[in-house]
Write a structure and sequence with these properties.
This protein is α/β, with parallel strands linked by helices. Helices cover 46% and strands 16% of the residues. The protein has one domain: Metalloproteases ("zincins"), catalytic domain (Collagenase (Catalytic Domain), 3-Layer(aba) Sandwich), CATH 3.40.390. It has 5 helices and 4 strands. The longest helix is centred in the C-terminal third of the chain and has 18 residues. The relative contact order is 0.19.
């Protein structure tokens, strides 16, 4: 998976995390791209207000490029690939590192684990997962925990 954006020093960790998620979800991420960026609390609050009409800061936002449900396979979106390089752009993930650090303390685990969880959470949203309905939340949580456990990123 190609990862664009300003995510130093997490780019390699996200690369491995997303590849692990792809294996667990049985998806081919070899010609898939996602943009991940860290932003300030002010910026994520602005984005949350602009796109979700919620006037408060949040930990992570996802902006999907595809109208995909979690049960659809990426192969169904081959027509959306860039014709020049055959890359499928999933969308953008925006993470507020300051909020992630606060949440890590609250939840009693490391910042690295929290940031990885948020990046994965964002990726799952780009892949059509959600947590509004109980069954959807269960599937999303299962995919998250299986991926994080496979990576050895525990609580």
């Amino acid at each position: 998976m190609l990862i664009e954006g300003k995510v130093f020093p997490y780019k390699r960790k996200f690369q491995k995390l997303f590849e692990t998620a792809g294996k667990i979800l049985e998806e081919d991420f070899s010609k898939v791209c996602v943009s991940v960026n860290f932003v300030s609390e002010t910026e994520i609050k602005r984005l949350n207000n602009q796109f979700r009409q919620i006037d408060k800061a949040t930990d992570v936002l996802s902006f999907p490029n595809l109208d995909k449900n979690y049960f659809q396979r990426l192969i169904e979106f081959d027509s959306e690939r860039n014709p020049e390089d055959e890359i499928l752009f999933l969308g953008d993930i925006v993470i507020c590192k300051n909020i992630a650090k606060k949440q890590a303390r609250e939840f009693g685990h490391g910042t690295k684990r929290e940031i990885c969880f948020l990046a994965l959470h964002g990726l799952l949203h780009l892949l059509g997962f959600d947590h509004i309905k109980e069954e959807e939340e269960r599937l999303m949580k299962e995919a998250s925990e299986n991926t994080l456990n496979a990576m050895g990123v525990s609580r």
